[in-house]
Amino acid sequence: MNNTELNLSIIVPVYNTEKYLEKCLNSILKNIPKNTEIIIVNDGSPDNSEDVIKKFEETYPDIIKYFKKQNGGLSDAKNFGISKAKGKYITFVDSDDYVDENMHKEMLELALEKDADAVYCDVELVYEDGKKSAISCTNPNRDTDYFKMIDTPLMAASWNKIVKKELYDGLIFPVGLNNEDIAITPILFARAKSIYKIDKPFYKYFQRSGSIQNSGFNEKRFAVFDTAKICFKYSEVLAKDIQFQLKGSIYKYQMLDLLIYPISELSKEEQLRLIPLFCKKFNEFGDDPYKNKYVKEYIKNLHISLLLYLIKKERIRTIILFLRLFNKFIRPR
Which of 75, 119, 84 is nearest to 6 (CA)? Predict the structure, then answer.
């Protein structure tokens, strides 16, 4: 296969996911589109993931490109994968997740038909007990394709989206930080001139205990503040209305939700430790989140306008009381 013929590069970063990797790769390969490469990046995984990878590499030598590197974290693995990618479009699959067999075929067909800059789909949460829950990744109340995608909780995810490789020019995932997608995905879609959506929950997001997102709440989650700053820096060249939309969505879904939902369920001792840190990091953005009209709209709809004032004034004990009341009377179930 000539490199110039490749349409899609599917990048699979691997670290300690031996138990899930076979299911992940089988799901990708089941109905893989023509002219597609799978780039597997073993980020120095100490388990037996390499044994699984090599079996697939031997079976699919024309499709799978395997690379093993010293551990550098998820961002480093993603950046490495992009550097090796030859496809017109790039996407990612987390190695403990899996996909519908038609996901990449249908998304790529639409992308090529429309010469789209980006295509995305809905997501299905899959739990260890077998329960499943579909999540729409579109906000129908917004008036542009970009705003409909960006104003949703999973706006930053890189794995339910395929994007033209050229849109990554000048962008790198921040090495050493979790929540790395927040720094990059909103910028990719802001650069996109044409965005299309497939209303199917193609991507299966496995909610396993021990994963980065489900390993218990701690201050490591506050990396979101650092990745947001990187995103905001990249966004300075964008139109002002796009910046407001982008920032509003990140403040709402990546920062305020970080306080309202997971911290509200912690012990009072943990709240006393983490909430002052949250307030400090949130207030480092100055008056920007407090003046953003989309943040104001969000807190009004959730009936939590008081919370924003309390964060600004760093009224820690009152915030704890508010969160307790929120959890009991206000929180959507």
Answer: 84
Backbone φ and ψ of 43, nearest 5°: -90, 55
| Rg of the chain in Å (alpha carbons) | 20
Strand, coil or helix: 10: strand
Q: Are residues 165 and 264 part of one domain?
A: no
Note the pLDDT tens digit of each residue in 221-259.
999 999 999 999 999 999 999 999 999 999 999 999 999
Range of the domain at 198: 3-207
**203 inside domain:** yes
Domain count, the chain: 2
Can you read off the two tokens belonging to residue 151? Answer: 């104003």
Query: What pLDDT does residue 331 have?
Result: 60
User: What is the per-residue DSSP string for 87-136?
Assistant: SSEEEE--TT-EE-TTHHHHHHHHHHHHT-SEEEEEEEEEETTS-EEEE-
Q: Are residues 190 and 292 in the same domain?
A: no
In whole angstroms, what separates CA 181 from the centre of its chain?
5
CA angle 296, 298, 303 (to 5 degrees): 95
Residues of the chain falling short of pLDDT 50: 1-3, 211-215
CA distance 15 to 74: 8
DSSP 8-state class, residue 140: T
Query: pLDDT digit string (tens) for 193-226?
Result: 999 999 999 999 998 765 444 446 888 899 999 9
Q: Answer whether residue 212 is part of any domain.
A: no
